[in-house]
Amino acid sequence: MADKLAILALSNTELAKALYNGNLAEEEIKALPAQTVYTAVKTIGLESSQDIISALSHKQYEIALDFEFWSNDIINEDNIWNWLSIIDDPKGFESLDRFIKEVDQNILVFLITKYVQIEVNEEQTESPPFQQGYTPDLGFTWLAINTGDDEHDRQLGKILAYIFESDPDYFYRLIYLPNTCTPSILEEESFALRNSRLQGEGIPDKETAWRVNSPKTASAILPLLKSKPDFNFTKKSNYPLLHGGYASEPLRGFIQDIIENDTNLIFEIEQNLAGLLNSAIIYCNIDFSNFDIVKRLSEQVKGAINLGLEALIDKLGKTNTEYDNFAIYKQIGIQNIYQIGLNELKQIHSAANKILKNIENKNSDNNIPDSKELVILDALAKQIPEFSLLIHGNNSPDTLTLKQETKPFEHLTEIEQAKIILNHLTNTA
């Protein structure tokens, strides 16, 4: 598979399958944008992707760790230990050496500061100064590792032993740094460096993410159809994370019309869709490593775009002949359409949360919604509201099961059905 455009045209699932089956050469893997290959690896599963991980470029590996090792602004230690377990090779140190070279030094120092007791002496000593202490250098330096987990102790000990044997100068720098800063300072500095690297890959900062996820009315967007085009979200060549199908109309027809008009626009469209998903991930404080939630969010983003497109078409009127899909895209782009959809969702979110707040403030049990209605409210009150299938009235009243019966909003008819329920609950709660 030598055609780069053909590779980038694959859906996430198709790319993951090609990687898993070994259909891409190492140089083709290295040519993929970092977020592309990380997404594919998460689709396959880290445990089944060791050969792919070993083929990553420096940048790809570094960004993969940036995605994997953070929960918002907190270092995700569970994911660190899991990564170390996956790359652990009893037959050699190649994978460990690669990890040590690619991981942010501050993360290593963070673990050392938190879990390693250290004493450095000017003269050799024979006895450990603390329980379970050991020395790598004949008594000048004493270490004791205590993570509270034997396997984690072994993993961290293996890292320190390998660094001491392969690069003693680096080892002594690492064990000295805990004297200069606290774990919280190390975490803060590491997070800032991580964000800088991610922004270099096209991941927006919080300010940009909030701006992109600010709702707009269709009426506010309509004047843009007669003004200078305003549609570029990002010029960074991130992989089309949302690529893989647009089942709902009118979005499917909208995308198809644009591509038929200019086939070269497919990558621009997907690039902007990737930017919207990344902005939503940052806005919603979702971990990039939580792949199931990221996949769900991608469906919510596509649903919001579909809502916005329906609202815009409705505002233009059924008799509109002046602006076809291609003209709409070239004038206002997908981001503005997405923000129109967010406006529809915001109304649902606000109304549902207002009802829940009123219920919470009431002391009486009278007029409290039944379990079915509470499940519906819970779905509608989410940061990005979801359409409860209970609205159709065909499900069991078992709330433990029903809480899973939701889907992203995609159509204005679903918004209207939700509003009917909300109006009813407003009048009765």
3D structure, described in words:
There is one protein chain. The chain is mainly alpha-helical and 429 residues long. It contains 21 helices and 6 strands. The chain has helices at residues 4-8, 12-20, 26-30, 34-44, 50-54, 58-68, 77-87, 94-102, 105-115, 150-166, 168-176, 183-200, 206-212, 218-221, 251-261, 265-283, 291-316, 325-361, 371-380, 399-402, 412-428, and strands at 70-71, 74-75, 116-120, 141-145, 386-388, 406-408. The protein has a two-stranded antiparallel sheet with strand order 1-2. Strands 3-4 form a two-stranded antiparallel ribbon. Strand 1 and strand 2 form a beta hairpin. It is elongated and about 90 Å long.
**Basic shape:** elongated
Percentage of β-strand residues: under 5%
Radius of gyration: 26 Å
* Number of helical segments with 4 or more residues: 21
Features:
two-stranded antiparallel sheet; 429 residues; single chain; mainly alpha; elongated
Quick description:
Helices cover 60% and strands 5% of the residues. It is mainly alpha-helical and 429 residues long.
SSE arrangement:
Elements: H1 4-8, H2 12-20, H3 26-30, H4 34-44, H5 50-54, H6 58-68, E1 70-71, E2 74-75, H7 77-87, H8 94-102, H9 105-115, E3 116-120, E4 141-145, H10 150-166, H11 168-176, H12 183-200, H13 206-212, H14 218-221, H15 251-261, H16 265-283, H17 291-316, H18 325-361, H19 371-380, E5 386-388, H20 399-402, E6 406-408, H21 412-428
Helix pairs in contact: 2-4, 4-6, 9-12, 10-11, 13-16, 16-17, 17-18, 18-21
